[in-house]
Design brief:
By secondary structure, the protein is an all-alpha fold. 64% of the residues lie in helices and 0% in strands. The protein has a single domain, classed as Ferritin.
């Protein structure tokens, strides 16, 4: 797979896998309004995934469309961040993950929309508006829980510490990003750390939370190395397509 296809694929995988996780909250969120909000966020992410996976298939040139890439790849073929596949757990964990990931996506798409690849730039220009809402939604919940009751504060602090070890992977550069950054196709992920840290740190501070000092986890999602929960996620997501190959809705 060429570098452009690989880059589009990894961004699409991030969005697809987190869409699957976020959608698990529908009919299970703590408030009816949150069922709707998280459902809409999941749909936004799914829309991003469809555009990116479609482009990845076109750039690859092997005849695979968005459905083939979503449903007919095995676990080691997915290159999403491990952060995106973490189980939802406590609602605070989901909000902590959404805060750190949407803040990363916001910085990424804000730059990628001015990139030299017209398709990636167009996808990013649309997605950054959605991600801005995702970030704001997570911010409001982190503030609400962090600066709320003693219990909500403790749970929000624990949630931040739970997801934090997986954040370093967002800023790792590899051969794909290094090859595409110079011609302006991709964004150097290392350049996103400072503005990301500034925003997230300010939210945690306002929420009376302590900036986590946990050590980075051993990750490898970009290389197809995933947590033990990824297989279960894919089994659920891919079951229908694999059970009835070629089936279409009438």
């Amino acid at each position: 797979m060429n570098s452009v296809a690989a880059y589009a694929l990894r961004l699409g995988d991030d969005a697809l896998v987190l869409a699957q996780r976020t959608g698990e909250w529908i009919a299970a969120a703590p408030q009816l309004e949150e069922d709707v909000a998280l459902g809409n966020i999941a749909l936004d992410l799914l829309g991003q995934a469809r555009s990116l996976l479609t482009y990845a298939g076109q750039a690859e040139g092997e005849g695979r469309d968005e459905d083939a890439l979503a449903y007919l790849r095995d676990e080691r073929d997915f290159t999403n961040l491990q952060l995106c596949e973490l189980p939802n757990g406590d609602f605070a964990v989901t909000m902590a993950r959404l805060l750190v990931f949407s803040s990363y996506q916001y910085e990424l798409y804000s730059r990628l929309q001015y990139g030299t690849d017209p398709t990636l730039a167009a996808i990013a220009a649309k997605a950054v508006k959605e991600v801005d809402y995702h970030r704001d939604h997570a911010t409001q919940w982190v503030l609400r829980l962090g600066d709320g009751t003693t219990e909500s504060h403790q749970r929000m602090q624990a949630a931040a510490e739970h997801v934090w070890p997986y954040t370093d992977e967002m800023f790792d550069a590899d051969d794909v990003t290094r090859e595409l950054t110079e011609p302006g196709v991709a964004v150097d992920p290392g350049q996103l750390r400072e503005p990301w840290s500034s925003y997230v740190g300010a939210v945690l501070d306002e929420a009376t939370l302590t900036f986590p000092a946990t050590r980075p986890a051993v990750t490898g999602g970009r290389r197809g190395i995933h947590t033990e929960t990824m297989g279960y996620l894919l089994a659920q997501m891919q079951h229908l397509a694999r059970s009835h190959p070629g089936a279409v809705r009438w």
